[in-house]
Specification:
The protein is mainly alpha-helical. The protein has two domains: about 110 residues, no CATH class; about 80 residues, no CATH class. Helix content is about 60%, strand content about 0%. It starts with a helix and ends with a helix.
Length: about 200
């Protein structure tokens, strides 16, 4: 875990460095050079993360640290200039709220932005206080960021309903544990230990 934490700090410190330089002073060559260094730090961090957690768990956006970082350097010069990006569900909610609830009436007491902010606060409050009313599904647990029906007991052969076990908690059996351990050993041998050879 220490290696993953150190590589994260190195990546984080680099993409935040030299922010006293104006972006319009960074030409294409400098941006490419900085992107190459940032990608090297990102790959080191991904190797450390894979060694720590293995390949059994999905990390859908991990590739963005390589492809996305390069594009950010080329577009913005300094990737921290677009640091508000990255919360995909917030973007989806914003689009839905604006599409369905925007009010361009100049006589309205509240504008579009106020409506969106109010709906976001209401949504977060409801998910934190009324999560027990949500359906007992993995998707609902993920969106609410809460373990649903955590005291329910799994009934053999029953896959739906409140008695099908808790949702939102990753529970591994012996088969999954063995698979994760094997993945960790393989990644450690093939990726982490061979990292200096690749450089």
């Amino acid at each position: 875990m220490g290696a993953a934490f150190v590589t994260f700090i190195e990546f984080y410190a680099y993409i935040k460095s030299e922010h006293d330089v104006r972006a319009d002073q960074l030409n294409t060559t400098v941006r490419k050079e900085r992107a190459a260094v940032a990608i090297k730090y990102a790959l080191n961090m991904q190797r450390a993360m894979l060694a720590l957690i293995g390949t059994g768990r999905r990390r859908t956006y991990a590739h963005d640290l390589v492809y996305g970082t390069y594009q950010q350097y080329m577009l913005f010069g300094k990737p921290w200039n677009c640091a508000t990006e990255g919360n995909e569900h917030a973007h989806q909610d914003m689009k839905k709220f604006f599409k369905n609830m925007a009010n361009h009436n100049p006589n309205s007491t509240h504008g579009d932005c106020f409506q969106v902010l109010r709906l976001t606060v209401i949504k977060n409050h409801l998910l934190q206080t009324k999560y027990h009313l949500l359906p007992n599904s993995n998707y609902a647990a993920m969106r609410a960021n809460h373990v649903l029906q955590e005291h329910s007991v799994r009934v053999q052969g029953k896959r739906r309903g409140a008695d099908s076990g808790p949702k939102g908690a990753k529970c591994y059996g012996n088969k999954e544990q063995d698979k994760l351990a094997e993945s960790a050993r393989r990644v450690q041998a093939e990726v982490v230990q061979c990292a200096p050879c690749a450089e």
